[in-house]
Amino acid sequence: MSRVIAEYYTDRHPPMLRFYVFHAPHRRMHVETIRRYRNDLRMACMRANIAFPIDHPIDLEVTFINPTSPDNGNIYLALEQAMDGKTLSGPGIVTDDALISKSTIRKMFIGQRKHPIQPVNLPRFVDLPTDIMEAAMT
Question: What are the C-alpha distances in Å from 63 to residues 22, 37, 119, 127?
Answer without folding.
Answer: 8, 15, 29, 49
